[in-house]
Amino acid sequence: MNKPTDDQDLRLRLSPQQYEVTQHAETEPPFTGEYWNVKDDGTYSCIVCGTDLFRSETKYESGSGWPSFYEAMEDGLIETREDRSHGMVRTEILCATCGAHLGHVFTDGPRPTGLRYCVNSASLDLKRD
Ligand SMILES: [Zn+2]
User: Fold this and answer.
1) How far is residue 29's CA from residue 3's CA, in Å, rounded to a whole number?
2) Is 112 helix (H, G, I), strand (E, B) or coil?
């Protein structure tokens, strides 16, 4: 696992898009990210700090164009906060370990949780099984 690091190191280590998404809460355009259409088995971890966040078993086809999960691997891995940007009230999701922006969580997901964790590919690193 990588340790959370300083800003200059992050700029070197991440792609410009990964940096903008995780550090400035940018959103990658839908249907463009690395993982929205990936069905491989594995663990999705935070691109910044390497903490494991989501398992492929909870990834599902949401039609949104972003990787979507109905559940995080464990309680406490994901932090939420209210996001009132862009004239909407949404719930932002962040890596609880390093504070990286991941995406948003919505309540229109499938059973059993009814949640849709809508995550930028740029925030994730898939470790295939
Ligand atoms: Zn992190």
Assistant:
1) 28
2) coil
